[in-house]
Write a structure and sequence with these properties.
single chain; alpha+beta; two-stranded antiparallel sheet; 6 strands; 35% helix; globular
Length: 213
């Protein structure tokens, strides 16, 4: 059993493709896409909205954060995580479960991508300081469960890229972190660069080069 999503601006093409597929495989048509693997899709004349509101609420309830207080940002601006080797250890299974749930949520929530990726680096030996940061992300989600991605029907075909250059932001190896975004958010991710920048200018140069690539 598997699921297939297909679409077209011409209804006749959709019907034709469906007939071809049903002639080759035993399958049923479910109609217009509304829900797929935790993704909620709302299609209107002005565009399409993709969110994970239901999944987000399930994650909050699963980890007992559905009644927590809300915060305005997923991470404090003064927060710089490290291995915290002298810190108090926490349940690794629970921590990894939180990280896994948050990583799946980044399918429609690029606003938490950077923060979640930073926390994933400490899954091998999570400490209380790392868990506190993850819980803050969940507190942020508590007040933003309805956030998602908007794809307007009248979007221009121009491709625009944004990149965040961070010089010396990581305490472990001092590598910079960059983020890639496309117009209408067609692509986004966050990862450490493969080389160490020696200045803010060099960090920006590397980030722009990766963004263009």
């Amino acid at each position: 059993m598997d699921d297939i999503i297909f679409g077209s601006t011409d209804d006749s093409l959709c019907e034709g493709f469906a007939n071809i597929m049903q002639g080759e495989f035993e399958m049923s048509m479910m109609g217009e896409l509304n829900f797929f693997l935790g993704l909620q899709i709302k299609q209107v004349e002005r565009g399409t909205f993709v969110s994970q509101t239901k999944y987000c609420r399930e994650v909050l309830k699963k980890f007992g954060m559905d009644t927590c207080k809300e915060v305005n940002t997923p991470m404090a601006t003064s927060c710089y995580l490290d291995k915290d080797e002298s810190g108090e250890e926490v349940n690794q299974t629970m921590f990894r479960g939180m990280i896994g749930s948050l990583l799946y949520l980044t399918a429609s929530r690029r606003d938490i991508m950077q923060n979640v990726c930073v926390c994933t680096r400490y899954q091998a030996n999570p400490k209380e300081s790392h868990l506190t940061v993850v819980k803050r992300i969940l507190k942020y989600l508590k007040g933003t469960t309805s956030f998602g991605l908007w794809y307007p029907s009248d979007a221009t075909p121009s491709l625009i890229g944004y990149s965040d250059a961070d010089y010396g932001g990581c305490k472990i190896d001092r590598k910079s972190t960059c983020q890639f975004l496309g117009f209408s958010l067609v692509s986004w991710h966050s990862k450490k660069k493969a080389c160490v920048a020696l200045s803010t200018t060099e960090a920006e140069y590397i980030a722009v080069g990766n963004c263009c690539a």
